[in-house]
Amino acid sequence: MSSATSESVGRMIRDGRTARGWSQKRLADELGTVQSAVHRIETGQQNLSLSMINRLAEALEMPLIQTATQGDVNLRIEGPTTLSGEIDVRTSKNAAMALLCASLLNHGRTVLRGIARIEEVDRICEVLASIGVQLTWMGDGNDLEIVRPDVLTLDDMDERAARRTRSILMFLGPLLHEFPDFRLPYAGGCDLGARTVHPHLAALQRFGLTVEATEGAYHATVADQRPQERRITLIERGDTVTENALMAAAGIPGVTVIRNASGNYMVQDLCFFLQRLGIEVDGIGTTTLTIRGIEHISADVEYHISEDPIEAMSLLTAGIVTRSEITVRRCPIEFLEVEFAVLDEMGQKFVVSPEYPSLNGKTRLVDVTVIPSELRAPLDKIHPMPFPGLNIDNLPFFAVICATATGQSVIYDWVYDNRAIHLSKLSALGANIQLMDAHRLLIIGPTKWRGRDIDTPPALRPAVCVLLAAMAARGTTNLMDVYVINRGYEDLPHRLNALGANIKIFWGTPDSDD
């Protein structure tokens, strides 16, 4: 089997378009996207999701596009890499998922600005479109207009798309306002072990929702009578649990008090959005939220999604691991301060700019320049905590950072059952990592990274850690089946290439000729 690269597929698309006598604008209109996106696709600089590949093949009547891109998407990384330059942090994937679900609350026109075009966003958009929501991409292709129908058609839900994202759970909060009973497919997402939905169900039960697990689906039933004032203590300070409770509270008149709430970045974005809808939300960023709901929400609103602290940490890690000097702009500092404190203890040098506001007018941003440094292992184990502690999704990056440091480090991931196991895959690239148990890694550095063929871990952040380590490795690494990375990052290989990385996207076998 011969391989195809993003560049060769882009040339195929360009040739098919010109053969039909179409402009890039015409093809963009057929695809429901913008001309700049078509230009990036044709030059191999745009991530191609499965749904986009199918739309291209249909629009150009070229099944050859689907044939060329059959199988998994892979990355070929040549190292070692030295990066330079500046790069902007893009908006939060996790906030976008919550806001897309929350748009179901609004019977007016919602415009979300700056949405990352990633696989997970595509999946939720496919679900929304299938139940009757009108979606229109605008501007440079990252602004989305959302207009929901008066009555959602849940019977038409795209179950395949729904099963591929855990975010479908956040439909529970909005939909309990719409239907006396409904069904949702079981949620998917990363392989991080047993992630119980019980905290969601315990919280939403206080709003009259009961859920029974049937074969392949959650069957939800909503009680006729619900208390006017609700005081809820979450049994887990989870992000999506808090978001579900917020969306449930927003659509019910009266006061809801949520205790043990998450104050994390995506929860704050949802709170700011609900305020735009006319919902009173007090205590944003704290563990106690007070919400005054409205029975019928109908507002024409625009909201700029804030920058993603996890992507910021990914990009900073790219500079640290490759011993490069790069500037990462638009970092949301409130959600990175503990991470920076740990890096400082390890000897990492960086320069932080004065603060300035995000486009949402709320989130505080800084530009951060990382400088090549001699790192030493931290004195204590590195472990996550709920906000304002070290973010659970930033913990994996410290595994690859500690592997570059001199000394012995312990990474303790007490939240997830499998993620430490996935991170141990860094040993394939030369790291001295011992899996102490399902939650703890012992890492002894520094590492002399070496390239090799490797299957991508089935979890987003460990997968990106392997990619970053491969950039520092001597030789060629073929990272196979990177769908999980595309779930959470928009065009990450191309953006890293703009800093000096050498990453190619290909379909097929690693030993094939391009």
From TrEMBL:
Q: Which UniProt keywords apply?
A: Cell cycle, Cell division, Cell shape, Cell wall biogenesis/degradation, Cytoplasm, Peptidoglycan synthesis, Transferase
What's the Enzyme Commission number for this chain?
A: 2.5.1.7
According to UniProt, this protein's pathway is: Cell wall biogenesis; peptidoglycan biosynthesis
Q: Does the keyword Endoplasmic reticulum apply?
A: no
Cellular location(s)? Cytoplasm
Provide the GO MF annotations for this entry.
Answer: UDP-N-acetylglucosamine 1-carboxyvinyltransferase activity
Entry-linked SUPFAM superfamilies = EPT/RTPC-like, lambda repressor-like DNA-binding domains
Q: Which family, according to UniProt?
A: Belongs to the EPSP synthase family. MurA subfamily.
Q: What does this protein do?
A: Cell wall formation. Adds enolpyruvyl to UDP-N-acetylglucosamine.
The protein in question is named UDP-N-acetylglucosamine 1-carboxyvinyltransferase
- From which organism does this entry originate? Tessaracoccus lacteus
